[in-house]
Amino acid sequence: VSAATYNWNVGWQTENPDGLQPRPVIAINGQWPPPTLYANVGDTVTIYLKNGLGNETTGMHFHGLFQNGTASMDGPTQVTQCPIGPGETFTYTFQVNQPGTYWYHSHNGGQYPDGFRGALIIHDPSIPYQYDKEEVLVLSDWYHSQIPDLIPGFLSTTANPHGAEPVPNSALLNDNPTTSFSIRPGKTYLFRIINVSNFASFLLKFDQHQMAIIEVDGVYTVKQSTDLIYITAGQRYSVLITAKATAPGQNYAFVGAMDPDMFDCYPCSNVPLNATGYLVYDSSKPLPNSEPTFPSYTSGFYDDFSLVPYDKQPLLGPVTKRITFNVESGTYFNQNRFAINGNSYVEPKVPTLYTVLDAGHEATNPAIYGQYANPYIISHNDIVEIVVNNGDSGGHPIHMHGHNFQMVERSPPFTTPHKYSGTPTTTPPATPVRRDVMKVQASGYLVYRFRADNPGVWAFHCHIDWHLTAGFFATIIEAPLALQAQSIPANHIQACKHQHLPYRGNA
Ligand code: C2O
Predict the structure, then answer these.
(1) Could you read off the pLDDT of 205-243 as tens digits, one per residue?
(2) How far apart are the CA of 217 and the centre of ligand 1, in A?
(3) Would you say the CB of residue 461 lies under 6 angstroms from ligand 1?
(4) Which UniProt keywords apply (predicted)?
């Protein structure tokens, strides 16, 4: 067991990643694109995070890590911690036992699309697949405006009567308009693909090179070959790409294309929806002009349900606890917002984790958390089934902290809302794919399971940051009495003295 220690100071600086518009971004130690956080399985990772933003609070989440035994290190503001005030340093420390591809991001007030997000890679000496070299490919949408400047217009029912999300200005590959990987004949490359977008799902295709999927969201899979990947905000894929056996005498393009079905401006004639990168076999040869072509878009296209986890973990059952989330978009608090079972989430004044630890035996009573925290309580070792009935006409990348999830059933998209009947329409897979972000289709439903073996307070939300901001959020309070054995480090409690600061407001 070793340690990976990082001293990170987040601060503003001006960057122009698409070459079209310089703007302030949140950088780490003066570096943007932000650094990749590397660790090995078994490491204790420690991050001393200094808030050097000057004008607003912050916080940091490690997307996909279970934080088993360290619930207070999970990062979402007002769920597991208070926001970190300007000038303050806050310590995250936890052991990592999960190999694979993750990412870190601010979980405070729509801050990650302003730049505070990056790759988090956990290396595994016993990865069950062989490769010669590893590459990281970060896909992102990009906005020319800072997110707090766009939120009021998005939420306004008068300025934006249809609740349309702001459309990104560009697509980025590794935070550039284009990127290249140098490739040698005969070698096998592991590409770790991460979509850190605020909003856009991406389609990804390499010209004349197949991808073999070997990992989704930190779960090794039985190798599955594909020439096209659809990846929503928050999701990750590891794929093996085998180079041509002999020097091909040319280079090849690949394209990351934002799913245009998501944008109300479709066809979005003035938005560069695609970003093109290159596999460079021979740098003396020109970059190719030809690009891979995509199949005509079908909103029903999705390919991850058929993946099989490498460990072949069987379907969990019988279900001992079912939670149904009926999601609606509409007008709440006179804004364009989302609601779950009628409630549009509003942050509680005290982080919900802290309420659990202070509540004694009352912690199992949902009423103490406040209606607008959308609290849902589950018991230790429940086999939980969550049903998401999407009453909205757009698809959503559904994410929850603290676990990954067996996908039991996902409906196709519909034009009118369809709710889950309670029994699967097709036999669930015997060894369902597990992941931590799952798309629910437009007006459709999603059913997933997990074992409640990780006491904590876990955020449930849509990973489209516009939607999280608009109340598409619930709090899962898992095994609250067992959770009371955990404690909060003193420097976390210190941060609560800034509780009066508005979310991202002036200090
Ligand atoms: Cu990457 Cu709560 O999420």
Answers:
(1) 999 999 999 999 999 999 999 999 999 999 999 999 999
(2) 12
(3) yes
(4) Copper, Signal
What residues have CB less than 8 Å from 85, skipping those under 6 apart? 51, 57, 495, 497, 498, 501, 507
Q: How far is the CA of 234 from the centre of ligand 1 (A)?
A: 7
Is 413 a pocket residue for ligand 1 (Cβ < 6 Å)? no
Q: Is the CB of 117 under 6 A from ligand 1?
A: no
Mean pLDDT of 396-409: 98
Ligand 1, closest atom to CA 112?
Answer: 1
DSSP E strand stretches across 210-364: 211-216, 219-226, 229-231, 236-242, 252-258, 274-280, 321-332, 335-340
Q: Which of 125, 149, 184 is the last residue of a domain?
A: 125
Judgement on whether residues 11 and 139 belong to the same structural domain of the protein: no
Beta bridge partners of 156: 335
Residues 149, 252 within the same domain: yes
Which CATH number is 196's domain given?
2.60.40.420
Residue 257 domain-assigned (yes or no): yes
ipTM for the complex? 0.99
Whether pTM > 0.95 for this model: the answer is yes
With H, G, I as helix, E, B as strand and everything else as coil, classify residue 368: helix
Q: Is 178 a domain residue?
A: yes
- Which pLDDT band, with edges at 50, 70 and 90, does 499 fall under? low
Domain of residue 401, residue span: 321-497
Count of structural domains within the chain = 3
Got the DSSP string for 446-463? EEEEEE--S-EEEEEEES
* For residue 502, pLDDT beyond 90: no
248-277: string of b/e by CB count within 10 Å (b at 16+)?
A: beebbbbbbbbbbebbeeeeeeebebbbbb
395 with 379, same domain? yes
Each residue's pLDDT tens digit, 251-267: 999 999 999 889 887 55
Q: What is the pLDDT of residues 158-201, one digit of tens each?
A: 999 999 999 999 999 999 999 999 999 999 999 999 999 999 99
DSSP 156: B
